[in-house]
């Protein structure tokens, strides 16, 4: 036997011992992961190929698995990483209401290059715990009123019920700068905006790392696995939203909201680590959209007139694959 053959055998034995030690150290983790429902997983690469080969279809792939596995939990292996998709309100409530599961996975570090170190990208909770209580008072509604002049200054640059409501609240005086009280009266516009966020949430998924074992829908998820809250699938769950693919602002009538779980619609996340700027975002959306609709009438462009679908993809946020074909007509 040659020296090279001996070296190869030795390397093989070492690799086998390392692998066996790895399996032993993660025995409980791997056993629980194997019991979770999910698609067929290839050795080594796991389930990464469908997502890697069709990155523009990730939302459709996710919805396919949500339908197949009844909105989770759904097990995926990405190399040696166990990622569990959940899209049921009752499961998400258990996760997001627990103060122990606040840590975000290491993948959030990849966003720091263009988002910087902040409450969203901080994965170990150190900055979040330090600054959340300090920043929260700055987003009180009374303080947000001060941003209105800025919103309307920038908004001079969106159907009929919305327009009727806007005309009823603001009248025909286009020079009138709306107040926060005016915006609060735009109840139908708020329902329209929420329905848009239901169908097309700006953040279609977000993740947490489990600090201890958790039982969801009669399945035990292991400590240190990554749980992906799939907003896009959650918001299209037929148990929460009948006719989930139909645009219906009445989904957000008060009586319908009371009839479903508060965790059925979470475009800004939920629980202790929810989005601190959600009131700011809603105020800004109402300000900008109402200002545009006071000055312009919007109609769909040729692509949408021909029944073209809205094709989307997900990166760190949801994006439209095609141009947004809308025509503005001055009123």
SSE ordering? HHHHEEHHHHHHHHEEEEHHHEHEEE
Strand content: 5-15%
Total individual domains = 1
**CATH class descriptor:** Mainly Alpha
Decide which structural class fits the backbone: alpha+beta
Radius of gyration: 24 Å
| Cα shape | elongated
Strand order of the largest sheet: 1-2-6-3
CATH topology: Cytochrome p450
What's the CATH architecture?
Orthogonal Bundle
InterPro entries: Cyt_P450, Cyt_P450_CS, Cyt_P450_E_grp-I, Cyt_P450_sf, Cytochrome_P450_Monoox
Keywords: Endoplasmic reticulum, Heme, Iron, Membrane, Metal-binding, Microsome, Monooxygenase, Oxidoreductase, Transmembrane, Transmembrane helix
Family: Belongs to the cytochrome P450 family.
Transmembrane segments: 6-22
Describe the protein in words:
There is one protein chain. The protein has 331 residues and is of the alpha+beta class. The chain has one domain: Orthogonal Bundle (Cytochrome p450), CATH 1.10.630. The protein contains 16 helices and 10 strands. It has a 4-stranded mixed β-sheet, with no helix packed on it. It is elongated. The N and C termini lie far apart (89 Å). About 3% of the residues have low confidence.
Give me the secondary-structure topology.
Elements: H1 3-25, H2 27-35, H3 48-53, H4 58-68, E1 74-78, E2 81-86, H5 89-96, H6 112-115, H7 126-135, H8 141-144, H9 148-154, H10 160-170, H11 180-184, H12 187-199, E3 206-209, E4 214-216, E5 219-221, E6 226-229, H13 231-234, H14 254-258, H15 278-295, E7 296-300, H16 302-305, E8 312-314, E9 318-320, E10 326-330
Helix pairs in contact: 9-15, 10-12
């Amino acid at each position: 036997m040659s020296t090279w053959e001996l070296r190869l055998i030795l390397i093989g034995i070492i690799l086998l011992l390392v692998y066996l030690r790895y399996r032993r150290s993660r025995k409980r983790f791997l056993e629980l992961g194997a019991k979770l429902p999910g698609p067929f997983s290839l050795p080594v690469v796991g389930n990464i190929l469908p997502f890697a080969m069709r990155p523009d279809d990730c939302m459709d792939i996710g919805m396919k698995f949500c339908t197949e596995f009844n909105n989770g939990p759904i097990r995926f292996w990405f190399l040696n990483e166990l990622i569990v998709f959940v899209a049921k309100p009752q499961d998400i409530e258990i996760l997001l209401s627990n103060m122990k599961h606040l840590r975000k996975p290491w993948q959030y570090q990849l966003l720091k290059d263009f988002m910087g170190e902040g409450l969203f990208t901080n994965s170990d909770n150190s900055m979040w715990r330090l600054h959340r209580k300090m920043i929260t008072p700055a987003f009180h509604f009374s303080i947000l009123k001060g941003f209105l002049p800025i919103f309307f200054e920038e908004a001079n640059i969106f159907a009929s019920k919305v327009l009727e409501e806007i005309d009823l609240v603001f009248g025909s005086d286009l020079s009138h700068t709306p107040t926060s009280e005016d915006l609060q009266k735009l109840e139908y516009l708020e329902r329209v905006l929420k329905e848009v966020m239901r169908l097309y949430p700006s953040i279609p998924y977000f993740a947490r790392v489990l600090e201890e074992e958790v039982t969801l829908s009669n399945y035990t998820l292991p400590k240190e696995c990554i749980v992906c809250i799939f907003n896009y699938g959650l918001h299209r769950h037929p148990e929460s939203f009948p006719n989930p693919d139909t645009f219906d602002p009445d989904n957000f009538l008060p009586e319908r909201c009371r009839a479903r779980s508060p965790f059925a619609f979470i475009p800004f996340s939920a629980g202790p680590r929810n989005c601190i700027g959600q009131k700011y975002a809603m105020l800004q959306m109402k300000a900008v959209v109402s200002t545009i609709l006071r000055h312009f009438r919007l109609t769909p462009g040729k692509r949408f007139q021909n029944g073209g679908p809205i094709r989307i993809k997900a990166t760190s946020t949801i994006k439209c694959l095609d141009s947004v074909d809308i025509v503005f007509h001055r009123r």
